[in-house]
Design goal:
Radius of gyration: 16 Å
Order of helices and strands: EEEHEHHEHEHHEEEHEHEHEHH
Strand order of the largest sheet: 1-4-5-6-7-10-11-12
Number of helices: 11
CATH architecture: Alpha-Beta Barrel
CATH class: Alpha Beta
Structural class: alpha/beta
Helix content: 25-40%
Length: about 240
């Protein structure tokens, strides 16, 4: 399983939100590149970058930050936030993203999802399944739909999606640990691979996720616990099995 340190960009800074609330944020670095460099110098082999401004605006806002990070650090960067047109997807890839993450648009615009998959392949186009209260959350986590997790995963996979990011919004930024049974359930529903995000607080959380030994669970995205120095990148990678 692979570790993905998270760099969430809002107002030009690297921040963390609580339960996706834009009004409840902590600024950890005023330069996202500096934050990203800290993780790569600590040994991270990949990064998860989210354009929170873009998610709220419905279009990429921080492509220049993506360009700086991907050009200077030399590790694969997956990027999401505001990618709601094929032009935006192409712009993110041109700016250096190794993989792009579609959120709201994957559900509101099936044609965009189809075109993106056809143009760039299922390995480079991920879809973010953000769940709040057991239901799909969209529009930068500001709206909750009636779709259940099972319905969403079935729909996406029938559309050709093979790479997913699953986030429990209720646990995001709370340092309360993951819902292990939820992760086990998702792992059983996914036919491709997924990354888990939400609530990681301690090395024991990572060890429990690795202990599930689910082949569909390919990695874990960690934000606040790393910024709060609950553990190091090296310790996290060891807990995940290397």
């Amino acid at each position: 399983m692979r570790l993905f340190p998270a760099i969430d960009i809002l107002g030009g800074s690297a921040v963390r939100l609580v339960k996706g609330d834009f009004d409840v944020k902590t600024v950890y670095d005023t330069d996202p590149l500096a934050a990203a460099r800290g993780w790569t110098e600590a040994g991270a082999g990949a990064l998860h970058v989210v354009d929170l401004d873009g998610a709220r605006a419905g279009r990429p806002v921080n492509l220049e930050q993506l360009r700086r990070i991907s050009a200077e650090l030399g590790v694969p960067v997956q990027y999401g936030g505001g990618l709601r047109t094929i032009g935006a997807v192409n712009d993110a890839l041109d700016a250096g993203a190794a993989r792009v993450i579609l959120g709201t648009a994957a559900f509101s615009d099936p044609d965009l999802l189809r075109v993106a998959l056809e143009a760039h392949g299922a390995e480079r186009v991920l879809v973010s399944v953000d769940v709040r209260g057991g239901r799909l959350s969209t529009s930068g986590w500001t709206e909750t739909t009636d779709y259940s997790t099972e319905q969403v995963l079935s729909l996406l996979q029938s559309s050709g999606v093979r790479e997913l990011v699953y986030t429990n919004v209720d646990r995001d930024g709370m340092l309360a640990g993951p819902d292990i049974e939820e992760v086990r359930t998702v792992a059983g529903l996914v036919s491709g691979r997924f990354l888990y995000s939400g609530g990681i607080s301690a090395l024991s959380d990572l060890e429990r996720l690795a202990g599930l030994a689910q082949p569909t669970l390919a990695g874990v995205i960690v934000g606040k616990a790393l910024y709060e120095r609950r553990f190091t990148v090296a310790e996290a990678q060891a807990a995940l099995g290397g």
